[in-house]
User: What shape does this take?
Amino acid sequence: MALLDFASPPVSSQAAAAPRDTLLRRLLRRPSAVVGLIFFALIIAMAASADIVYPDDPLDMVAQPFLWPGQDAAYPLGTDMLGRDIASGIFHGARVSLLIGAVATLVSLVIGVTTGAVSGYYGGRLDAGLMRVTELFQTVPPFLFALAIVAILQPSIPTITFAIGITAWPSLARLVRAEVLKLRHGEMVAASIALGASDGRIILLHILPNTLAPVIVSASILVASAILTESSLAFLGLGDPNVVSWGGMVGAGREVLRTDWYVATLPGLAIVAAVLALNLLGDGLNDALNPKGARR
Amino acid sequence: MARYLKRSLGQIAFVIIGIAVINFFLLRLAPGDAAQVMAGEAGSATPEYMAALRQQFGLDQPLYVQFLSYLKNVLTLNLGYSFRQGMPVSELIALRLPATLLLMGTSIAFAVSVGGTLGFLAARHAGRLADTVISSVALVFYATPVFWIGVMLVVVFSVLLDWLPVGGMASIESGLTGLGYAADVAQHLILPALTLGLFYLAIYTRLMRASMLEVYGQDFVRTARAKGVRPRRIALRHVLRNALLPIVTTLGVQLGSILGGAILVETVFAWPGLGRLAFEALFQRDLNLLLGILFCSSVVVVFVNLAVDLAYTVLDPRIELS
Assistant: This one.
């Protein structure tokens, strides 16, 4: 869902040049950002260790069905109606969520940054045309759009990633365009033109690096919303059938909601943790990269 | 104003044609030719109908001719026939739209009023306990998937407490009419509207808080303070009024996303609206119906955004549409 639209804050562009260690230190001064970092690290650790901690296929039946959490120490989070280990599903699901979230964001970044940069730099008719297309993509309800694409192309990790990426870029394009417009007629660009730099060089080496701060903040929010979209698609049965997905686990757990509500509850908590972590991180980055905005 | 309307009509035309283009290519991406997709899975349409469809859509014609005939059909609201549902697509959509609008309207009203109030309170007490609590709660709801909120509300209020119905829009056997029926629908509406509303409540809380703080930093607020205007009056008359505009903007921008959320909520609660229809179409692989819904909901978004633009001028007379 287009969470980004209001979450793309007007971050000052100059702060990006600050050295990396001070950025991290600034981030660590904010308790909420620290919480976000810890959660995020935990989820990355889960994704990385999934094959070591739970080497078996999480879709395999390993124990008797409907073991409640805590009932059997070997299955701390219990098993679902098919006797699949829920903890294993959550570990492996972290992998799928992060992968799709990251790659889909990359797709959005490529489309959004290119569109925004070209649009803002060249202006005129090209800008008007590109912005019309951006508006068009903003008008089509993004989730419904992604749903239609996945339904038509058949659900698999690549098609889901593509569908999320192709529907999430417009807000990014607008953000980058606005940033580029701020710099386009500044002295820095004028100097580069006077020195005979090519358009490509000016955009890639001079303008885009200065838009990095707000783009990084938006990207972390975009990953969060991509994870939400992926889990929503999987919940509706549009997940890759060969891998386990948090949203798919919630969807499956719905059938036994009356008696065994933990099956649908636990994977949902994992989604909340992941999305919350990325949002906290995004907020923290925004404050850290934008000291002027932190007036509270 | 006339110039504005003319320009926005041009924009609407562009968007509608653009969506038709997207739909056309999505249909072509589907396995099988468009006639097969239009007719749903094999076996649900007669060979005569398939032949008629191929002729109607001119599938033996060059691509641009195909597109033009598709466009003609879309513009005359001939979105095809759903064999699975036994009804023309446009009629199906018209039948289901009111339920979705009721759900969305209730959720938005809830989210804007409660979220706005919470954001207002958080901004007035910025940095203090009330602000921390409100902001944290908003952040958590903002990170919670809509469908999971729905499932959890069902667990608590329908399964454990047995206060509210699990799903549907009205009790089937009751045969209620008039006010009784309205009360019945309202009771069924509570959980779905709450589910959809909570996510957007978080958005409007955050937005209202940020927007209020932004206005608090402006010169005219300092002037008002210097004049000795009471803080309460500053908050209500000076800050709130100016902070409302971004809320209206976001409402327009978010509409498409709220529609997406409605699909999930309607699926969880078997609410008989457009989203539920999209889910059924998905399940039955009735791709043409799905694309018809995509088209119609985009058109709804376009027109609501037009309405939002017009609402601007009422809210803020300084804004002129040109």
Notes: Residues 86-122 of chain A form the longest helix (37 residues).
